[in-house]
Write a structure and sequence with these properties.
single chain; mainly alpha; 2 strands; 64% helix; elongated
Length: 167
């Protein structure tokens, strides 16, 4: 399963780049890119700049999370903040622990890319339907928060107190 997570992140990145290309083909020349609390546009950019920003953000997010996951094994354990680090990063458990951290980074990268794909989808819809953003993002924001909290709890459980350790 852990070996599939980098591929999943690459797949989500590919979907985000396809989305950026499809949006570019259908957006007006001036794109509303920022909206106030009432969903009304208050900042714009060109279609080309918006597509470049959308694709660039996706590439940046994927590079950060995939890069951290791929090169974390080169970091000294003191730079990796997990509970009970000395136990979990002892030579006998280091590889499995690094794999778990890298997996979490890939999952968070997928969730973050998915979140921004949803946001860009709504920006696209707003630009095609008269420029007003429907304010239905709050459930997604709450869902994203709950997903990240669930991942943190799973991460803490994975690196729970070692057997036989003192309190």
């Amino acid at each position: 399963m852990m070996r599939l997570l980098p591929w999943l992140l690459a797949l989500v990145l590919a979907a985000a780049l396809v989305q950026a290309a499809r949006h570019h083909a259908t957006l007006p020349e001036q794109v509303a890119t920022h909206f106030n609390a009432r969903g009304e546009p208050d900042d714009w950019m060109s279609r080309d700049a918006h597509a470049a920003f959308q694709a660039g953000l996706a590439l940046f997010i994927a590079a950060v999370f995939a890069g951290l996951g791929r090169f974390i094994d080169r970091l000294p354990a003191r730079f990796i903040n997990v509970p009970h680090r000395d136990y979990w990063f002892a030579p006998a458990r280091r590889t499995a622990s690094l794999r778990a951290v890298a997996g979490l980074l890939n999952v968070i990268g997928c969730a973050t890319l998915g979140f921004f794909m949803f946001v860009f989808h709504h920006v696209h819809r707003a630009n095609l339907s008269g420029g007003r953003l429907e304010l239905e993002l709050m459930p997604l924001i709450i869902g994203q928060f709950l997903l990240i909290m669930g991942l943190v709890v799973a991460f803490l459980f994975r690196f729970r107190r070692p057997p036989g350790a003192e309190r």
